[in-house]
Amino acid sequence: MTKYARHKTLAELRKAISAEGWGSLNTALFDKGGSDGVSFTFRVGRVTGNCVYLTHNGKIMGEVKTSKGDEFYSSDLNTHDRCAWFQKLLDVCLVPQSPEAPTVAKKKPARQGERRAA
Fold first, then answer.
1. CA separation (Å) from 37 to 27, 63, 64, 83, 112?
2. What is the pLDDT of residue 49?
């Protein structure tokens, strides 16, 4: 499974949605200051759905129409992790982690009276 570095800004999300040909990003409630979420519709293969994207943390949720019927999905659940449409949705909404990105190890804090080299 792909690892992600961060969630996309609204400008990045709007551009990614447009590049996929998914239509427009609905920001009406967000623009009025009444919501942290924006929404859009998408289609990946035979799967169509609605997505709510939370701008403050990048979580996604919504409903998809599949051959099995309507299904709820959320980035908090792992029920759709192996579905191609869900992976595409994550790729559109999140920024993949670079494979060469270094892993930063956290330094243990120095004990009182002890100095640590930088």
1. 8, 15, 18, 24, 45
2. 95
Burial of 77 (C-beta count, 10 Å sphere; 0-12/13-18/19+): exposed
- Is 50:41 a contact under the CB 8 Å cutoff? yes
- The pTM assigned to this predicted structure is 0.77
Q: What is the distance between the alpha carbons of residues 24 and 15, in angstroms, rounded to a whole number?
A: 10
What would the pLDDT profile of 44-61 be if each residue is shown by its tens digit? Answer: 998 999 999 999 999 999
Residue 81 burial (CB count, 10 A): 11
CA distances from 56 to 50, 63, 80, 92 (A): 19, 21, 22, 16
